[in-house]
Amino acid sequence: MSFTAPKGTYDILPPESSAFLAVRDALSRPAALAGYEYIETPIFEDTALFARGVGESTDVVSKEMYTFQDKGGRSLTLRPEGTAGVIRAVIEHKLYAGQLPVKLWYAGPNFRYERPQAGRYRHFTQVGAEAVGVDDPMLDAEIIALAWEGYRALGLGGFRLLLTSLGDDTCRPAYRALLQAFLRDLDIDDDTRRRADINPLRVLDDKRPDVLAQLDGAPLMVEHLCGPCAVHYDDVRARLADIGVQWEEAPRLVRGLDYYMRTTFEFVHSGLGAQSAIGGGGRYDGLSAAIGGPALTGIGWALGVDRTLLAMRAEGVGLPTAARVQVYGVPLGAAAAERLFGLTAGLRAAGVSADMAYGARGLKGAMKAADRSGAAYAIVLGDRDIRAGTAQLKDLRSGDQLAVPLDSLVATILEKLT
Ligand code: HAM
After folding, report:
1. pTM of model > 0.85
2. What is the mean pLDDT of residues 252-281?
3. Could you tell me which residues come within 8 angstroms of residue 137 by beta carbon, excluding any fewer than 6 positions away?
4. How much is the average pLDDT of 261-283?
5. 283 Cα nearest atom in ligand 1
6. Kindly report the CA angle at 319 between 399 and 349, in degrees rounded to 5?
7. What spacing in Å lies between the alpha carbon of 392 and ligand 1's midpoint?
8. Do 54 and 152 belong to one domain?
9. Residue 282 C-alpha to ligand 1 middle, in angstroms?
10. Which ligand 1 atom lies nearest to the CA of residue 60?
11. Could you read off the pLDDT of 124-138 as tens digits, one per residue?
């Protein structure tokens, strides 16, 4: 019997795995530069946290959760997203009692039982950032700009920022009623009618032509914002404009999670087909209270590492690949291998990445391995060299080779690499 990775999952293998790490780092770096600190929360949480935080009526909660009972009879769920767990941790550890805003970033796997297709997996990786406890439109603009910078730093050009405001508890209920009244008069099927009852905003996202055609005159949230929400949204856009971040108004943008209010956004990429969202987020001022915490405001995003990699591939943007090691040891015989074993350990202790050929491979095989490793230098060592107290240091790019005394080898390599 043999096994394959479960449906909807895939292995991230070398050499592409180095590009995966590079993307993860590039997407989180702007947040770190803005003072966001790293947080890591468990991969599973109480099921009720997601039901209450993300929303019972969302597909994510009602259809896509990996829920199980542990041996203690608790209902646990593999996290489908990171925000609920991060806010749970902020509340549990009273991080809000310190300096505000609490600025946090995270990276890791999430799990959704979705129908797998290109760019949509059951196990996928996000980089996320959250700013909690300060209601300042400048913070909305900051967080959006950090995602923008992350994509730009990777050399991506074909992405767009879709932006809207979803209003708040003051203006959204009235708008919701207005939209429901509009939808009631349309010629739509029973399922859509039911959706209009539970979450009418989601009907605005319907892509079927017969429904779309009827949505032309639908009332839009942005046209019915209350005074404070309208001012907030104007401020966010003014600050984005100040720093050169371009957006498109997306009054029908619908997110798959229920906790959003006010500023809401998505980054989409044209090279990805149906799964075009490479990242998304927004303000979630009611989330903390909904999961039993104090009334804390918050805004954040999560960027999809898997889809960002696909977008880079679609654009033909060079994926960052690093040499596996800087130096590679090529031993000719058992005694040389033992000496090289110590030498490579010494190189690593000095901060130089180093590997060597193991398993008596012979000169040709070992030199091939040295080339494949991407190393700048090979140390070739044989019995005659050991007797002479030297090693052959070979520059793998130019092919030049010189004899270097064994006791100054590490120093010589350090000098050559800087
Ligand atoms: P989300 O829009 O559900 O938001 O996910 C964010 C990103 O994760 C998506 O734009 C996409 O790139 C990636 N993603 C989601 N599902 C999949 C999947 N099945 N396969 C591959 N990639 C996927 C959130 O998760 C919110 N927690 C974001 C947030 C943070 N809002 C406020 N703070």
Report:
1. yes
2. 94
3. 232, 233, 235, 236, 239, 263
4. 95
5. 32
6. 55
7. 52
8. yes
9. 11
10. 3
11. 999 999 999 999 999
